[in-house]
């Protein structure tokens, strides 16, 4: 009886282990299932944006080549404004061994420092709020990330259809099909069931039934996998190398900034800015309760808008007027005489 119970216990452990093994990290998923192309938005939290986002590049992460990736994403590839249309953002793994998400960040330093020191992905409080997660044929665009249990799904996107090349099998041999069961099969099934009649995705449902289970299982595996990973001496050397490179980049950036800020040219620039502030500029504060425009002519010609409660820097060596409209020829009201308050603040009440 004891032998039978022990056998059942081992079967249980094997089943649990097999299910855990099916939870892939994001770099594994990207390697096998992610490509460049347009990802169609099938759900939007605020229902304000439709169309597509575009992954313009998938390349090895220069910080840790051959293990992880750098994803380059255009969030608004069809925007009317060219600068917004061409704007890209980069995403990097959130963990050296088993990434559960990819985090919006950049490489530290300028090109010169990167060539000398190496590539280091920026970390800290300024990054990490925006992330992406790939599951099956979908990309989840996350925002306001605090933890795996505290975040928002901003967009759900469907991957482009890619024709995969097939290889001929040996004569007499049947092609083996990959079996998908347990956790992955359940995730895929729930992803399909989350669609509404119109083909869009229910964000609340997909968060509860698809994304959160993945984050829970993958985070659990990340913790155990990292302990095993770092115990390997080669991996420990890789971790030390990356930590040393980060420390060196921090020192190099500080030295680079110190060299600039302590240079004679920078000090002369600061002195000139101080002279401008005290001898050429005056600060105009608007306390009228409505937007006004400021200029140096009796009737509006070239004006500067100052919203209620706002400020603007103006030249102190000329008379100044304010206007209730920026239309050319609008009558001006004089509030400042030339050279009377250079380096100070004048308030329009």
Radius of gyration: 29 Å
Give the ordered list of helices and strands: HHEEEHEEHEEEHHHHEEEEEEE
Overall average pLDDT:
84
Low-confidence sequence ranges: 2-20, 164-170
Structural class: alpha+beta
Helix content: 25-40%
What gross morphology would you assign?
extended
Write out the strand line-up for the largest beta sheet, numbering strands in chain order.
Answer: 1-2-3-4-5-6-7-8
Number of strands: 15
Count helical runs. 8
How many angstroms separate the termini?
92 Å
Keywords: Signal
Signal peptide: 1-20
Key traits:
alpha+beta; eight-stranded antiparallel β-barrel; 349 residues; single chain; four-stranded antiparallel beta sheet; extended; 36% helix
Task: Please describe what this structure looks like.
Keywords: Signal. Residues 1-20 form the signal peptide. The radius of gyration is 29 Å and the shape is extended. Helices cover 36% and strands 25% of the residues. It starts with a helix and ends with a strand. The relative contact order is 0.10. With 349 residues, it is an alpha+beta fold. The chain has helices at 2-21, 26-33, 82-85, 111-117, 182-193, 203-231, 233-261, 264-279, and strands at residues 37-44, 52-60, 69-74, 89-93, 102-105, 131-135, 138-147, 150-158, 281-286, 292-295, 304-306, 311-315, 320-323, 333-336, 345-348. An eight-stranded antiparallel β-barrel has the order 1-2-3-4-5-6-7-8. Strands 11-10-13-14 form a four-stranded antiparallel β-sheet, with no helix packed on it. The longest helix is centred in the middle third of the chain and has 29 residues, at 203-231. The protein is built from eight helices and 15 strands.
